[in-house]
Amino acid sequence: MMRSIRASSERKMIHSLFLINCSGDIFLEKHWKSVVSQSVCDYFFEAQEKAADVENVPPVISTPHHYLISIYREKIFFVSVIQTEVPPLFVIEFLHRVADTFQDYFGECSETAIKDNVVIVYELLEEMLDNGFPLATESNILKELIKPPTILRSVVNSITGSSNMGDTLPTGQLSNIPWRRAVVKYTNNEAYFDVIEEIDAIIDKSGSTVFAEIQGVIDSCIKLAGMPDLSLSFMNPRLLDDVSFHPCIRFKRWESERVLSFIPPDGNFRLISYRVSSQNLVAIPVYVKHTISFKENLSSGRFDVTIGPKQNMGKTVEGVIATVHMPKAVLNMNLTASQGSYTFDPVTKVLTWDVGKINPQKLPNLKGIVNLQSGAPKPEENPSVNIQFKIQQLAISGLKVNRLDMYGEKYKPFKGVKYITKAGKFQVRT
Amino acid sequence: MTDSKYFTTTKKGEIFELKAELNSDKKEKKKEAVKKVIASMTVGKDVSALFPDVVNCMQTDNLELKKLVYLYLMNYAKSQPDMAIMAVNTFVKDCEDPNPLIRALAVRTMGCIRVDKITEYLCEPLRKCLKDEDPYVRKTAAVCVAKLHDINAQLVEDQGFLDTLKDLISDSNPMVVANAVAALSEIAESHPSSNLLDLNPQSINKLLTALNECTEWGQIFILDCLANYMPKDDREAQSICERVTPRLSHANSAVVLSAVKVLMKFMEMLSKDLDYYGTLLKKLAPPLVTLLSAEPELQYVALRNINLIVQKRPEILKHEMKVFFVKYNDPIYVKLEKLDIMIRLASQANIAQVLAELKEYATEVDVDFVRKAVRAIGRCAIKVEQSAERCVSTLLDLIQTKVNYVVQEAIVVIKDIFRKYPNKYESVIATLCENLDSLDEPEARAAMIWIVGEYAERIDNADELLESFLEGFHDESTQVQLQLLTAIVKLFLKKPTETQELVQQVLSLATQDSDNPDLRDRGYIYWRLLSTDPVAAKEVVLAEKPLISEETDLIEPTLLDELICYIGTLASVYHKPPSAFVEGSRGVVHKSLPPRSGSSESAESPDATPSGAQTSEQPAVIPTQGDLLGDLLNLDLGPPVSSPPITTSSVQMGAVDLLGGGLDSLLRSDVGGSPAMGSASFTAPNAVMPASLGAPISSGLGDLFELAGGVGTLSGSYVAPKTIWLPAMKAKGLEISGTFSRQVGSISMDLLLTNKALQVMSDFAIQFNRNSFGLAPAAPLHVHAPLAPNQTVELSLPLNTVGSVMKMDPLNNLQVAVKNNIDVFYFSTLYPLHILFVEDGKMERQMFLATWKDIPNENEAQFQIKDCPLNADAVSSKLQGSNIFTIAKRNVEGQDMLYQSLKLTNGIWVLAELRIQPGNPNFTLSLKCRAPEVSQYVFQAYETILKN
């Protein structure tokens, strides 16, 4: 009778979770085991203070009795308390999954949304983790166990007194396909695939590529009735040699035939993500001509940036935005944009130039004077130019879907593939 | 309406109000009240006072309300076990509910209530749920077995739940499989003795099949479980690798990293000539690189692991340098890690690119990062000789920027470059000297002073430069002072004529005006040297220095091998073995990489394998002490009473290295990771059942403390006389005294049990806690008849050393639990180490010499054995009786030198040199051992044996 508290019982993965906003308020806590005092978060706050910038808080912090593993998402810190040796990636992946689920349920993963739905949040957390083991993390299944809030439903609920909790078990749990509900019905059967590629690149001063790779994903929206079995094939599957798959994909089929064969989850999901890194395969769609210089003793400098199209396969480069973190000594900037508009935030020293579309006939240019703090030494660092852009109807790697076949169901689905290329972390050093 | 309304509180006592609402007749009001309670819970308010009222709401057919109540219960079940038990009937009833959701909820919540009593109610429902037709219930029940095992392991075994759990691995539903594996691995991990996941080719095959079926989380558990398996040959290793590689393409990064761990570990067994080996190497690179495109937190963990992988197998990522290039908006913790890996991957082939990058980084904004980048340039120069010149010129460019901290870092690393390539880059000294004034950090100042002293003959105004530092001598930090003293002495030896005054000044500053003993001593030594023999001084002070090593920051190889086994865990993030930092980690089994099969490989290992050391015995490695008492016989005794734990990491790492790695290389046999090792440990059949125990915690602990003090000294001869281990007043009338003995290879614990109580004692049983050398009873404690009042019985309990191992402090501490019909009693005692000295501890002469040389000098420990009147031969024969073997005896300058060896049961060799001066009763004992921690105890054994 005496010994209900035991040292050995503490060895579970995630002991507790604290959600903390940017001003350092703990606005939600959940304990899967015994209650851990909020004071454990002091170590986190300490680290946060040291890091100065929210993004720089180290994700693993050790304290005398616990480990704190955290992620930073949507201005919220998800801080988990760990007491024993666990795989940190496991915890981090799980925390991201929690954030994804909130996003999925409430449309946004914000403090307000979470506070407005505490009871659902609690139900979700309890359903997602039991005794340190993830129970159900698939959105399809969670949604059957716990219905997401909708305005309509809460009105109906308050009138009829019915609940937002599923009173039956999710059907997916019964099958070997935990990601799919058993009974799915649609009148319009549709399958859409978005091939989205992001270019990560570092371009050096002289314009040559230091590093470039393509991070691609195929996001799917599949609304097909019944149990469709799909096969997606590519014109040039050999491009895909570094791929991560959704669990639904049959790996063997891919290994032997280079065909993606799967029974899809219902709704939106990421089918695969892939990486194309061989540098000659990575086309760089824009170039940047730049002069950013500071004069000693004059407290001023010159800024002149032009952006032009490069290897863009004849498509229009649009949605172009350039951001530059100017050195601390910069007071303000007097610039003229040939196109689009620019803003300079004197506090964060961030220059943002919203360019829009690039017209190859008349290249967008931004130039003018940089004013420095008087007396400050000439800044040593050269700011990098961060470029964002979009190219519709193009997968820059050249990846092309060949065909989509469906087995197992009789109807004829509507199929669509969309391609888009974007800048990922695209940096030009000056 | 949103849930935020539940946060509004009224002025009146909130709890009071909630209580009223909870007891309302209206269902709707009740539900709202429970929601309010839960809302309070989410912000950390203590609403446990409402427990009875909330539990009252549980008997309802409203599912939502029921679920809410369960939410509440799960939060507080653990802290309010006695109240939770009130709800037990409802739980049992709910376990029969037609709705599987409710069945699952009930069994799940019951498992959270950590009271022994609940287990009697839990067993039947749990058994049903484990066989439930609904997979959701089955998977919940699987987890519940782990929970129950935590409360009462014996019960779980007796009830056959473990077998049911094993069956669930082949369940048709992947979620059930995942949870069954998770539960099993948790149980196996917390009770390595449970012989649960006895991994054999069949069960491995089952797991590999389940790997394809189960959820991503289950895959992680399975992979981690696989990583503990030791394939019997390279073929099996390869076939497992082949089935694991598809996991590298999983979207979940934790799955990927766990797969990498399995592959990295099993690869060790594959011959490098194998085609498959090359294929595997190629397959490992892409997934590792892909991890770097994930969220920054994931990147950080991935990078820490890649750092290990790159050190172990640089070939995997040698062509992927570019993915480690730093983006300016990477978080700082990612930047620093990337930089580290860049240097590890730097080679002649890519050094130009690397340097260009580093130079770029050196102009960034973040000071820490810039500093590290500058240092990195220096490390490149030292690592890749061909690049040294380019590195130096890059550093000079950076010095020209005049950015203060850049200049200082540059000077510090240039000093290292000078040490690596002497007399090569002295042309830059002039530039360095220009920056003398801007140096305000001790490390940079010390480096600069070193340079000036070292090259004093080429710097015309070296005396002036050094003199300028001398002005504020007493305000300088110690390292600068020491450096200045040495530099000026060097200068004097090189240019004696002009600098006499200067050297006198610094010597007097160091010796007369300083409180720092290091500085004073160094000053006196120089002074004495200079005044007695300037030629000798020159030889000493200006001696050629050894070149600095290429990479000073590499993880020591045995530790690296261990860490490779912990890829993906916290250990891999901290680059320390888990035993070094996880609180309460119970005797973590030390893991090691499997030996490579095929003889071609073993030849390349430099650590000579002592032929005599090949033993069939499992060398027990000593993991660091974790949770001492919590672990004792799986009983709960509350928080660990660890005696001063070794906390500093350096000590820890050293210890592990020596005990673990040293042994590995010494014995070359498989040490850890094999659960089979733990399987033999808890042999005492009349296992004490935790459920039946009731000793109050406090007194139990008190006993331990007092006893530990009382028995602290070793007594007696070969077999010490019995001492009282457990006084009657501490053990409800049971008095235990005892001693240890070793006879022809078997160890026993000789006990005297005396019943000083008024009632008859019976049902004796004994168990040991894990200990440093795996001592465990080899047979149950047989007390043939009940022990009547005032009766004494003498027993000899045979011991073996195949029990679970956990490092104790002191090393020879043994914690014992004795049970009888009255209660369970705990005591601890220290056993003399010589009971562990094995009969075949005599080393070959040649081997002795080689081993003595091979063990680093730091491992040598010296002791004085005082007042021992014996001569060398008598000593030798006396020691031989206790398995300390004299290998050679020599007479050096009138002293007798005995060279001796002994071997411990776990395969640790100890070499000794005993110096005996005829007529002098004080001996000098020098001990050398790869595990120097044992030396002190070996010395105690010497003393004990010799003095009795």
**Reading side by side through the largest sheet of chain B, how are the strands ordered?**
1-2-3-6-5
The value of Rg of chain A in angstroms is: 26 Å
Q: Rough shape of chain A? A: flat
Discrete helix count of chain A? 7
Give the helices and strands of chain A as they follow along the chain.
Answer: EEHEEEHHHEEHHEEEEHEEEEEEEEEEEE
The largest pleated sheet of chain B is described as:
5 strands, antiparallel
Number of strand elements of chain A = 23
**Average pLDDT taken over every residue of chain A:** 84
| Number of distinct helices of chain B | 39
Query: Can you count the beta strands of chain B?
Result: 13
Q: What is the CA-based Rg of chain B, rounded?
A: 34 Å
**Assembly state of the chains shown:** heterodimer
Which structural class do you get from the secondary structure elements of chain B? alpha+beta
Distance between the termini of chain A: 71 Å
Question: How many angstroms separate the termini of chain B?
Answer: 85 Å
Which shape of chain B, going by the Cα principal axes? globular
Written overview of the protein:
The complex is a heterodimer of chains A (430) and B (948). Chain A has 430 residues and is of the alpha+beta class. Chain A is built from seven helices and 23 strands. Chain A has helices at residues 41-51, 88-106, 111-116, 118-128, 139-145, 151-160, 251-257, and strands at residues 14-21, 26-31, 60-62, 67-73, 76-82, 129-130, 133-134, 190-203, 209-223, 229-234, 243-245, 259-262, 267-276, 286-295, 300-309, 318-325, 330-337, 341-345, 350-356, 365-372, 384-392, 401-407, 414-429. In chain A, strands 11-13-9-8-23-21-16-19-18 form a nine-stranded mixed beta sheet, with no helix packed on it. In chain A, strands 2-1-5-4-3 form a five-stranded antiparallel beta sheet. In chain A, strand 6 and strand 7 (133-134) form a beta hairpin. Mean pLDDT of chain A is 84; it is low at 1-11 and 152-162. Chain B is of the alpha+beta class. Chain B has 39 helices and 13 strands. Chain B has a five-stranded antiparallel beta sheet. Chain B has a five-stranded antiparallel beta sheet with strand order 9-13-12-11-10, sandwiched between helices. Chain B has a three-stranded antiparallel beta sheet with strand order 4-7-8. In chain B, strand 1 (723-726) and strand 2 form a beta hairpin. Chains A and B meet through strand 2, strand 4, helix 2, helix 4 and strand 7 of A and helix 2, helix 4, helix 7, helix 9 and helix 12 of B. Chain A: Pfam families: Adap_comp_sub, Clat_adaptor_s. Chain A: Keywords: Cytoplasmic vesicle, Golgi apparatus, Membrane, Protein transport, Transport. Chain A: GO terms for molecular function: small GTPase binding. Chain A: InterPro entries: Adaptor_comp_med_subunit (IPR050431), AP2_Mu_C_sf (IPR036168), AP_mu_sigma_su (IPR022775), Clathrin_mu (IPR001392), Clathrin_mu_CS (IPR018240), Longin-like_dom_sf (IPR011012), MHD (IPR028565). Chain A: It is found in: Golgi apparatus; Cytoplasmic vesicle membrane.
